[in-house]
Amino acid sequence: ATPASPKSPPATKKSSTTSSPKNTKNLPTLISTYRLCLKGEIKITFRKRVRLARRTASEPRKDGRSRSGLAKSNFNFSLRYNIICYNQSMAKIMIVGTGNVGASIAYCLVNQRTSVDELILTDINNADAEGEVIDLKDTLTVSPSYLKIRSGTYKDAKNCEIIIITAGAPQKPGETRMDLLQKNAKIFKSMIKKIMDSDFNGIFLVVSNPMDVLTYLTWHYSGLPHEQVIGSGTVLDSSRLRQKLSEHLGIHPKSIHAYQVGEHGDTEFTLWSTANIGGKPLTNILDTKTRGEIENYVKNEAYEIINKKGATYYGIGACVTRIINSILDDEHRILPVSCYDDFAEVYNGYPAIVGKQGIVRRLDLNLTEEEGIKFQKSNNALKSALKEVL
After folding, report:
1. What sections of the chain are H helices per DSSP?
2. For each successive 10 residues of the chain (390 residues), what is the average pLDDT?
3. Which residue among 226, 252, 264, 332 is the active-site one?
4. Of the candidates 88, 193, 203, 279, which lies 20 to 30 Å from 156 by C-alpha distance?
């Protein structure tokens, strides 16, 4: 009698993951997924799983020989990849004003991986906007992102997710940000009306100086909810603060948590009561004199740059790109942007949660008595400026 054949193992369901390069059944699906990724319609994330199986000495080997000891060959490694796909909504944004600041923001957007699909540049000098478009397009073959870049008009604002405003008279050497107010307030009233006439209902991101006052005017003239009108605030100032502290302490600036708040200007100040590294308060590390020197340097750094090279634009370009990414990717990142203060009834730089809807909410921080006085002084300066134009 012939021996009974060994019972075959039950059939198992095939995994949707790829465990071996020899498995080519899912190749067409992978190729089509890859093509969608190139088009920017989806993003792909690879999660690697390593499974370790240990054979004991009592288990037979495939060749029938017995096992002795535990050698490296007694371990099997199974490497598997889970491919996770999710939809990525691509955005159209517009930059109004293609001077040094507007062009720097555009350059930062092109050279980072963002959710921006279309970038529109507009300026009162249309030739300048077109020139920037041509120059920026030359970077696309080597930049990490590929997006549509073109010049346009205010009529193109209708379907934009975000409009970044950098237009206005530039700050000259010896001129304060508030000196620009009268000139730029007139420009903004006409500009915001033209944008709103296109049925725009996205988010305004104001960068022009005096930024806090012009952000308030943008909200006032547009009629949009204040959550949808944001200023670049003290994001740049806080970046300068963290960099200066990094140089002084020898710690990476991303590991330093500290904010400049208030007006983006002469009355801004540092929230030392909340500043820390790894949870340790900086007030326990730096003495009063050192803190004062660092705070004054940060507050006046812009004037130093303007006196030496005429304008600041690299830092603000990177900071505005950080804000844009937080909005488009709904990151709920805490940034000291210029947002509406219900109590003071002004826009000022203050830590807030920034997401898809704009301002999710301002943080409720406990300020010291001294910080409270400085904050009130900064708000009073902003109110005085607003009275001059409203």
Report:
1. 27-39, 100-110, 126-137, 181-196, 211-222, 235-249, 288-309, 314-328, 369-387
2. 50 44 53 55 48 49 52 46 50 96 96 92 96 96 92 95 91 71 88 96 96 96 97 97 97 97 95 96 96 95 92 95 96 97 96 97 95 97 92
3. 264
4. 88
